[in-house]
Amino acid sequence: MDSTYSIIIADDHPLFRNALFQSVHMAVSGANLLEADSLDALLSLLEKEEEPDLLLLDLKMPGANGMSGLIQLRAEYPDLPIVVVSASEEPAVVTQVKSHGAFGFIPKSSDMRELVSALNQVLNGEPFFPEGSITNSAACDDLAEKIAALTPQQYKVLGMLSDGLLNKQIAYELNVSEATIKAHMTAIFRKLGVKNRTQAVILLQEIHN
């Protein structure tokens, strides 16, 4: 397959980034490869980059707790194909990844041949998920839909909330008024179907597991 694909590898482990680099080069000759080692680095890269063709995303990078990075990226870049590459290979994780809108899931335990094959499949426009890895979880889908309804700013507020920050601290971090944060909280609670901060944080932890 020959094309000038633009592919981002987002992983905080240099060794694994290197392995992915080699696999991508084997799957796609002449690909334009970009790297990011944290969610912040990835977001600033995406701001500068013309729509990349593919993002290979590790779930556990600095700044990304569990599914939160994937959800934020899906909300801000709905057309970007995202393939999660993760060491967490449990069916529940793969199911969550799929329900949060990822285009594929490649286990980190895959050998080079499997990686190349999965990448080729994805770049041909076909989603890739390991056989037998998807469980049917209506609750998981329902939660994914609720989270997807949040705006990127509301999602940020929810993330800071789960880090234990107070309203005034969140307002300071985001450079907005405390009244704005309270309005965000009200909208977040309504969208998630919860009554208070504690319930919202518990819900968020469910998607991070």
Record field, number of beta strands: 5
Q: What is the residue-mean pLDDT, rounded to a whole number?
A: 82
Give the helix tally.
Answer: 10
Kindly estimate the percentage of residues that lie in beta strands according to DSSP.
Answer: 5-15%
Distance between the termini: 37 Å
Q: Please list the strands of the largest sheet in the order they lie side by side.
A: 2-1-3-4-5
Fraction of helical residues: 40-55%
Write a structural description:
The chain has 209 residues and is α/β, with parallel strands linked by helices. It contains 10 helices and 5 strands; from the N terminus they run βαβαβαβαβαααααα. It has helices at residues 14-27, 39-48, 68-76, 91-99, 112-123, 138-148, 152-162, 167-174, 178-192, 197-208; strands at residues 6-10, 32-36, 54-57, 82-86, 104-107. A 5-stranded parallel beta sheet has the order 2-1-3-4-5, with helices on both faces. Helix 1 (14-27) crosses helix 5, helix 3 (68-76) packs antiparallel against helix 7 (152-162) and helix 7 crosses helix 10 (197-208). The longest helix is centred in the last third of the chain and has 15 residues, at 178-192. The N and C termini lie far apart (37 Å).
Question: What is the structure about, briefly put?
Answer:
With 209 residues, the protein is of the alpha/beta class.
How is this fold's topology laid out?
Layout: E1 6-10, H1 14-27, E2 32-36, H2 39-48, E3 54-57, H3 68-76, E4 82-86, H4 91-99, E5 104-107, H5 112-123, H6 138-148, H7 152-162, H8 167-174, H9 178-192, H10 197-208
Parallel strand pairs: 1-2, 1-3, 3-4, 4-5
